[in-house]
Amino acid sequence: MTLYFPNMAEPAGRTLGDEETAALERVIRSGMLSSVWGTEARALEREVGELYGSRHAIACSSGTAALHLSVVAAAPDPGDEIITTPITDFGTVAPILAQNAVPVFADVDPSDGNLDPDAVAALIGPRTRAIMAVHLFGAPARAGKLRALADEHGLILIEDCAQAWLTELPTGRYAGTAGHVGTLSLQQWKHITCGDGGLTITGDDELARRMRLFADKGWDRAAGRSHESLGLNYRMTELQAAVARAQLAKLPGVVAARRRTAGELIEALRGHEGIVPPRPDGHAWWLFPLVLPGGGAPELAAHLSAAGIPARAGYLKEPLNKAPLWGGPIYGTSHYPLDGYRPAACPEAERLVGDTLLIIDWNEHYTSEHVAAIAEAIGSHPQSRSRIRH
């Protein structure tokens, strides 16, 4: 009988339970479901701010909304550039376009897919306004080096931590605290969830002010019905916030469980040539990525899938610098702000997605039995003797 792997689309793969049900009932019985007048979203902001040691946390409707708020905080002029990674969800890039700014894709470190600071440095120019780093799969990006670059050139550093709840930086602080703004996601597939939801964190009063205004239609509630600036409705509901608060209490246990079994798999793969497991330091294990420097990830992923292991190659169909949208209109029939724009090649990212990156779904409910099944399936690959030697 094939071992069952729980996943985050069903109860067996989530930590949703009585606490979340009670939180929902509390809000519904209160009669106030809007965070403008309710208490849950503000309490969530306080709790996340305390967890991350951040002066400000701003709750919003999704992780993509949080990234949009972070771009608003950076305040690019139309046509300004924001440097980011081509290996990420489109939610990282869409807010850049939404603010009429231009995404500039920098290549990545082939060992983990995170931004290469040297590649970023080579792309900084007179129109660069910000750097947006992604802590991919829960692995810490080189946030210290990227912050040094940002400070040297007068840029804003944004950290996309959607996949990186409680990821630890070499400083001992959490990912999201090295930059000027960090963003978090509560979407269905993340470490903790309320279906959709997000937060931004910052220690900067002015950046926090810009983000809070934009999330509420530019409305300074203290000034009456007066709109100070352009904004959208990105408010989180009290229902989302209440569930998120219950989930937040479970977050340390979720990450600890994922780290335990990930460490077991790293040990099981130790000594295998041709396959590079992730560096465990600080990792939060949203997924478990493997790199095969010699290539062949699609074949190994197919072998694992056939054995019942939830694995796939590449993570994306193509890196975002190769996405079809760059040749089409952005607004109506207009290509603005991308007139004449073609993203540059990112050879390391393209090779990872096309041939060398394999990801295995990870879950806090995995056991040592799941780890053993994965390790056995990797070792039984028909070409394992040439690629993976014991």
From TrEMBL:
Its cofactor is pyridoxal 5'-phosphate. Coiled coil: none annotated. One of its GO terms (biological process) is polysaccharide biosynthetic process. GO terms for molecular function: pyridoxal phosphate binding; transaminase activity. Keywords: Pyridoxal phosphate. The active site is at K190. InterPro entries: DegT/StrS_aminotransferase, PyrdxlP-dep_Trfase, PyrdxlP-dep_Trfase_major, PyrdxlP-dep_Trfase_small. The keyword Lipoprotein does not apply. The modification N6-(pyridoxal phosphate)lysine is found at K190. Belongs to the DegT/DnrJ/EryC1 family. This is dTDP-4-amino-4,6-dideoxygalactose transaminase. The lineage of its organism: Bacteria, Bacillati, Actinomycetota, Actinomycetes, Streptosporangiales.
